[in-house]
């Protein structure tokens, strides 16, 4: 047993540029993308044939054949085949949760190194037989005689041939995630213009980061795509203002295809290690993963917004680490929707909310917006669900490293099912 | 890339047809593979005048496992099989009259030369004598060797090495290179060696074991071939290319067990960034290969500033800046470092529509020569390699006619392969090549251009 814990180091990361759904990666599978992403990481850190302690990764939309997605990807990669792997799934929190899992094992001394990642495709998404059809075919399969088989097949009706396509909707409410977010946006009175402004900043920040080579050692092109396909460097509030709302109802609808993340394909991976392992391999330590917290809210009956769980997780994390919301040099708040980021920030500023919902004596207060998503986030890059956490961890780790030692960053990611994963990194 | 014409000319029917029509018959060149003997047959060593290298050379050959036979008699009879190499020690030349001995030795020997045979002439540098007659004789050898290279057929080559007094020990590495399959496409060249501190006990099959090599433009073409050959010879390769080429770059790095660095070498901080990474991740670098290069062809009168500037930035300024950054960064260039710059035949001969490119590639030669003395003081070297017509994806897109003509305008009657450039660079990178500094080695099959 390890007598004490240590902080896991973030050595670096790799991702492929994110593609719009049915775009550049229309024909790539989750396994293709995750394997390419691992290989890019291997090439960057010279890990060919080496065994890392463990690879933890996952996908939100998964084919039945991908039951062992991460291990299969490892076997197809240039890592040693003796590298164990397992799949993780916590909706949009998958990537960050995987990083926390690997970091915790490193902290406990159970691992010296590990890779955390995530991948998702909305283009090559699994389609299921609809429920009626599935029952018919099960009956056919169970039939003993040809007669029984034929009579079971005779039961097929045209409606049963329609496949079930996974939708970005909550099973318990039937509402799309955007519709949920629109309810929250209306509750918090999040205006259209502030959403569009946040969106423009995301695009401009991401474009500027690409232009100055910030992503040179974080991204490896894939299938001819060299930058995120959704990135619009020349977008503006005026351009975004022209878009029609797609979520929410009537006059007050503010959420458009511009200030909401599009369906996206992509993958990311982060290399974590003990400081000793990094030093032995002459690899850099960009930052350490200090601590993490998850939370969940009852968005079905509890009157809370679907994507508000991070608002609850952050104060717990701050209290445990003796920090205030202002004690950070950088904030990475996942932009599922511009309104989600703004509602979360507003919630932390609200004395009533902080008292009644979060049980705090005083509000967490506001943050310096100049420190928020400084290298762009999901509105610009896109959001291949499970890949977002890895993108953010690697981006923030490098941001902190560039800023110098002793800098601190906060990650906040909301996820389907009313969940949230948050973490602190420090250089 | 296949050479359909060479394959055809060497087929049964092709042999008949090309003979009847008097068409060129490009040979399959002997290329290096690890573990291969230095030569596939015996060698003969002769001399013109009372030279000082015959013993030395015979010893080197025997150490490399080569059978050394006695000179061929004038009637062509020998004491054994056909010859794989003919070496002439011409360090004893005192005046033009001694050259007759060169003729007497070479003529019968060359009749016995095997395909992909090697002729290597060793002489003193013409400038290092105060006697005009002696300088004339030494200089005459260049004409002899260059013409001989054009006479030889079946993939055989002829080259000349200048060995000044006192630099005899520096000869070993070039001698091995020129005789081996590594020099397959190096023909009709003159190389000068200098005195240097030479390492002992080099592993001839893995001469770069334990070395760190950085190669720019490594994602494809010649750069990828350089990465493969350096890795085969034992080096850990840091493969650099523009971020947009990252996918191919990662593939090359993974193939050779190296490290991929996505970096535009023309970036303002590219040199310091690369130097810092080499120090932090690899403890410095032993071998630097400046290979990245671009063309933006236009007649000078029609050339815009962008074409001119981008070619200069990638092909020349980046080489200067990165080399300077490595020199300036504590611990970046390891002792005995080797820098090899890729120049081009265009930089020597010029090429219509390539004023920018040729200027940049000629500039590289100036840079290498200027830096050579400083590098020598550090026990390091800096050299240039100037490829001729090399068959790559780039040349594959040329019109068939241009490509066919371009690839045949040389003594070996075929285009070279990226691996030929890579082998030459890997040889210059060897610790044993310490005595080769400030040189420009053409890998062009003795191109007719700029010869
Ligand atoms: N192919 C020939 O026949 C030939 C002949 C003479 C000289 N050369 C020289 O050999 C070298 C390699 O040529 P090739 O035929 O393999 O060309 P290539 O175009 O196939 O490869 C050149 C590589 O350099 C990279 N590169 C370009 N600009 C860069 C930058 N700013 N930063 C980092 N990398 C950059 C490219 O991305 C590419 O991968 C070049 O210097 C070229 O001038 C080639």
Question: What would you note in describing this structure?
Answer:
- The complex is a heterodimer of chains A (427) and B (451).
- Chain A is an alpha+beta fold and 427 residues long.
- Among the domains of chain A are: 131-161; 177-213 and 290-426, Peroxisomal Thiolase, Chain A, domain 1 (3-Layer(aba) Sandwich).
- Helices cover 35% and strands 16% of the residues of chain A.
- Chain A contains 14 helices and twelve strands.
- Chain A has helices at residues 30-45, 69-76, 94-107, 131-142, 146-153, 177-187, 192-211, 237-241, 275-280, 309-321, 338-349, 351-356, 378-381, 388-403; strands at residues 8-15, 19-20, 55-58, 85-87, 113-120, 245-247, 255-256, 264-273, 287-296, 330-333, 408-415, 419-426.
- In chain A, the strands form two sheets. In chain A, strands 1, 2, 3, 4, 5, 8, 9, 10, 11 and 12 form a ten-stranded mixed sheet that branches.
- In chain A, a hairpin with a 7-residue loop joins strand 6 and strand 7.
- In chain A, helix 1 crosses helix 2, helix 3 (94-107) crosses helix 14 and helix 6 runs parallel beside helix 11 (338-349).
- The model of chain A has no long low-confidence stretch (mean pLDDT 92).
- Chain B has 451 residues and is α/β, with parallel strands linked by helices.
- Chain B folds into two domains: 39-192, Rossmann fold (3-Layer(aba) Sandwich); 212-443, Rossmann fold (3-Layer(aba) Sandwich), CATH 3.40.50.720.
- Chain B contains 15 helices and 13 strands.
- Chain B has helices at 4-9, 12-21, 54-63, 99-111, 132-151, 172-179, 221-232, 246-255, 270-282, 305-328, 345-349, 355-377, 393-396, 400-408, 418-429; strands spanning 43-49, 68-69, 83-92, 113-123, 157-162, 190-192, 212-216, 236-241, 259-262, 285-290, 333-342, 381-387, 440-443.
- In chain B, the strands form two sheets. A seven-stranded parallel sheet of chain B has the order 9-8-7-10-11-12-13, with helices on both faces. In chain B, strands 2-1-3-4-5-6 form a six-stranded parallel sheet, with helices on both faces.
- In chain B, helix 9 (270-282) packs parallel to helix 10 and helix 10 (305-328) runs parallel beside helix 12.
- The longest helix of chain B has 24 residues, at 305-328.
- Classes of the chains: A alpha+beta (427), B alpha/beta (451).
- The A-B interface holds A 36, 39-40, 42-46, 48-49, 78, 213, 215-217, 219-223, 226, 282-284 and B 236, 243-247, 249-251, 253-254, 257-264, 267, 280-283.
- Bound molecules: nicotinamide-adenine-dinucleotide (NAD).
- Nicotinamide-adenine-dinucleotide binds next to helix 7, strand 8 and helix 13 of chain B.
């Amino acid at each position: 047993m390890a007598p004490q814990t240590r902080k896991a180091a973030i050595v670096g990361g790799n991702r492929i540029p994110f593609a719009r759904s049915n775009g550049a990666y229309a024909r790539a599978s989750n396994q293709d993308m995750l394997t390419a992403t691992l290989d890019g990481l291997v090439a960057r850190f010279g890990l060919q044939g080496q065994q890392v302690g463990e690879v933890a990764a996952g996908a939100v939309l998964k084919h039945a054949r991908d039951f062992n997605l991460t291990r299969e990807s490892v076997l197809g990669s240039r890592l040693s085949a003796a590298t164990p792997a397992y799949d993780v799934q916590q909706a949009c929190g998958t990537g960050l949760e995987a990083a926390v899992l690997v970091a915790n094992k490193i902290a406990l001394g159970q691992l010296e190194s590990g890779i955390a990642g995530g991948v998702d495709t909305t283009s090559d998404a699994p389609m299921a037989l609809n429920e009626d059809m599935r029952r018919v075919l099960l009956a056919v399969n169970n039939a003993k005689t040809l007669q029984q088989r034929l009579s079971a097949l005779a039961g097929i009706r045209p409606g049963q041939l329609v496949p079930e396509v996974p939708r970005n909707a909550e099973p318990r409410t039937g509402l799309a995630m955007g519709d949920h977010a629109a309810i929250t946006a209306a509750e918090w009175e999040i205006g259209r213009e502030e959403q569009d402004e946040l969106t423009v900043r995301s695009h401009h920040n991401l474009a500027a980061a690409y232009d100055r080579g910030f992503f040179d050692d974080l991204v490896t092109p894939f299938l001819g795509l060299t930058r995120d396909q959704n990135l619009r460097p020349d977008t503006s509030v005026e351009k975004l203002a022209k878009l029609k709302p797609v979520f929410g109802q009537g006059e007050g609808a503010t959420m458009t295809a511009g200030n909401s993340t599009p369906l996206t394909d992509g993958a990311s991976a982060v290399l974590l290690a003990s400081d000793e392992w990094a030093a032995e391999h002459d690899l850099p330590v960009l930052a350490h993963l200090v601590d993490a917290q998850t939370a969940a809210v009852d968005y079905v009956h509890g009157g809370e917004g679907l994507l508000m769980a991070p608002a609850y997780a952050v104060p717990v994390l701050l209290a445990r680490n003796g920090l205030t919301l202002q004690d950070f040099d950088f904030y990475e708040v996942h932009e599922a929707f511009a309104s989600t980021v703004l509602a979360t920030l507003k919630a932390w500023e609200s004395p009533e909310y902080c008292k009644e919902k979060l049980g705090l004596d005083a509000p967490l207060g506001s943050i310096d917006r100049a420190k928020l998503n400084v290298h762009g986030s999901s509105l610009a890059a896109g959001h291949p669900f499970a890949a977002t956490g890895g993108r953010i961890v690697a981006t923030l780790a490098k941001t902190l490293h560039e800023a110098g030692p002793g800098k601190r960053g906060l990650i906040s990611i909301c996820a389907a099912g009313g969940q949230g994963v948050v973490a602190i990194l420090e250089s | 890339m296949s050479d359909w014409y060479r394959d055809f000319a060497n087929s049964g029917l092709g042999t008949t047809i090309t003979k009847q029509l008097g068409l060129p018959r490009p040979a399959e060149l002997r290329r290096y593979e690890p573990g291969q003997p230095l030569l596939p047959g015996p060698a003969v060593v002769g001399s013109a005048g009372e030279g000082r290298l015959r013993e030395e050379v015979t010893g080197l050959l025997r150490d490399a496992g080569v059978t050394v036979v006695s000179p061929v008699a004038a009637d062509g009879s020998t004491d054994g099989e056909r010859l794989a190499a003919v070496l002439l020690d011409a360090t004893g030349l005192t005046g033009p009259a001694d050259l007759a001995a060169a003729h007497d030795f070479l003529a019968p020997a060359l009749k016995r030369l095997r395909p992909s045979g090697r002729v290597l002439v060793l002489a003193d540098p013409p400038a290092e004598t105060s006697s005009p007659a002696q300088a004339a004789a030494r200089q005459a050898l260049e004409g002899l060797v260059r013409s001989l290279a054009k006479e030889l057929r079946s993939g055989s080559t002829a080259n000349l090495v200048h060995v000044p007094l006192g630099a005899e020990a520096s000869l070993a590495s070039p001698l091995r290179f020129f005789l081996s399959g590594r020099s397959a496409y190096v023909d009709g060249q003159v190389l000068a060696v200098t005195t240097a501190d030479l390492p002992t006990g080099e592993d001839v099959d893995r001469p770069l074991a334990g070395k760190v090599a950085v190669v720019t433009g490594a994602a494809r073409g010649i750069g990828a071939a350089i990465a493969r050959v350096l890795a085969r010879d034992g080096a850990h390769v840091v493969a650099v290319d523009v971020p947009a080429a990252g996918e191919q770059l990662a593939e090359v790095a993974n193939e050779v067990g190296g490290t991929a660095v996505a970096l535009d070498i023309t970036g303002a901080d590219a040199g310091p960034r690369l130097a810092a990474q080499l120090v932090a991740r690899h403890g410095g670098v032993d071998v630097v290969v400046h290979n990245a290069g671009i063309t933006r062809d236009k007649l000078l009168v029609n050339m815009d500033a962008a074409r001119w500037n981008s070619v200069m930035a990638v092909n020349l300024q980046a080489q200067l800046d990165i080399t300077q950054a490595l020199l300036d960064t504590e611990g970046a260039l390891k002792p005995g470092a080797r820098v090899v710059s890729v120049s081009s035949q265009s930089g020597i001969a010029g090429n219509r529509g390539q004023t920018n490119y040729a200027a940049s590639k000629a500039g590289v030669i100036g840079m290498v020569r200027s830096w050579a003395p400083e590098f020598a003081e550090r026990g390091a070297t800096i050299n240039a390699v100037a490829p001729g017509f090399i068959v790559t994806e780039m040349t594959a897109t040329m019109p068939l006619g241009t490509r066919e003509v371009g690839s045949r305008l040389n003594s070996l009657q075929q285009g070279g392969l990226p691996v030929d450039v890579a082998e030459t660079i890997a040889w210059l990178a060897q610790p044993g090549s310490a005595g080769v500094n400030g040189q420009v080695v053409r890998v062009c099959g003795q191109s007719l251009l700029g010869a």
